[in-house]
Amino acid sequence: SLNSYEPELVDFLRDDAYNQQNKKISVTYLWFLRKTHELVAYITVSPDCVQLKKISPQLANKFRGKGIDYKSLPSLKIGRLCVDDKFLRRGIGTLLIQFTINLAINLSNKVGCRFIYLDAKRNQEKSKDVIHFYKKFGFEIYKERGRRETPLYLNILPFIEELTDK
């Protein structure tokens, strides 16, 4: 079974993920080791929207200057991301983020999706504070909220442009 220094992530998978998926609220993707079939990680995603003015008035103005005059834009929300403690710092979290970026790009072509959004759970212990993990992928702070969670967003357009330039 999955073990995490964040017990609520294990609780969510055990108690809520299946019901939320059945109710079409979110979808949880599971990652297993190929040889042992051991569960090593999961990620839960759902549709959402990003309020542009809450990110920054400058960003809202930049979009307005490009003819995108909306208060919010569609996004894919990462509701939960968990890697088993035994498998931390082995690149599995990176695979989950890459998977989510690809999922968001596919959504952008089918129904529209501009951002990936999440609430990063903060941890007093620096080695367990995930905000630096997300920032290395280009996630930016959406709004400083407090000590427990920091909302982050990632504009996926540069990834789409990189794919179309090749």
From TrEMBL:
Reaction(s) the record says it catalyses:
glycyl-tRNA(Gly) + acetyl-CoA = N-acetylglycyl-tRNA(Gly) + CoA + H(+)
- Name under which the protein is recorded: N-acetyltransferase domain-containing protein
What organism is this sequence from?
marine sediment metagenome
The residue ranges of the N-acetyltransferase domain are: 1-160
Which GO MF term does the entry hold, naming one?
acyltransferase activity, transferring groups other than amino-acyl groups
Keyword Metal-binding on entry: no
> Does Transcription appear among the keywords?
no
**Which SUPFAM superfamilies does its entry note?**
Acyl-CoA N-acyltransferases (Nat)
Swiss-Prot/TrEMBL keywords: Acyltransferase, Repressor, Toxin-antitoxin system, Transferase
* InterPro entries assigned: Acyl_CoA_acyltransferase, GNAT_dom
Pfam family for this entry, one: Acetyltransf_7
Q: Which residues cross the membrane?
A: none
